[in-house]
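For anyone still unconvinced, we reproduce a single protein record, the chain in one-letter code, the fold tokenised, and leave readers to judge:
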Amino acid sequence: MFTDVVIFIRPGTLHDFRSHEIADQLTLLDAELFYKIEIPEVLLWAKEQNEEKSPNLTQFTEHFNNMSYWVRSLIIQQEKAQDREKLLLKFIKIMKHLRKLNNFNSYLAILSALDSAPIRRLEWQKQTSEGLEEYCTLIDSSSSFRAYRAALADVEPPCIPYLGLILQDLTFVHLGNPDLIEGKINFSKRWQQFNILDSMRRFQQVHYDLKHNDDIVSFFNDFSDHLAEEALWELSLKIKPRNITRRKTEREEKT
């Protein structure tokens, strides 16, 4: 007698998963690394930027960069324009759920990919470009990231902040203020550093209650399958050569 054999086939594309489930798994991966970061190594990074002395922070930063390049690679490796468009819209949906989860780290990693030059320069539907522009407003660097800071101030944990801005603020405080004033400890500088790091410490104390999904995590594959910057540009230029607009204009003038 033969028994039925059930074969599980691993999903082949990102579209095989629901956007909110992907956001959940991105958040769990971020959280696992975020909770490991120790406050002293963040403070030390602002002074020395030494990877060996800030190993957990370095791992978290590398995770951010790998994720961002993984997103860029997935989109730009699609041969058809409609497939690139569909995938970009998928990531915008994922960002929507990441925002609900207060996961600003993955949110920024994806946004930095979608807004990167090799991706942004390609042809997109007007509705898609306008939708992306709306998400960019949260992390607008003008006015010292005012929109993001306001959003972060209203957040209730759990939350994973964008560490890039925390490091930027700490570096600014470190370089702009001496450790000692007339031979005495500069308590104003220490207070500024404490306020920046205290919000991060507060977010580390509250954990997410999400379920692990092995299929999605396996699909991510540690975000190791991504192209380098040079390869991304080569594909971007292959899809849309630099002088394509100029040639089109010249042909229109001749007619």
About this structure: The two ends are 76 Å apart (CA to CA).
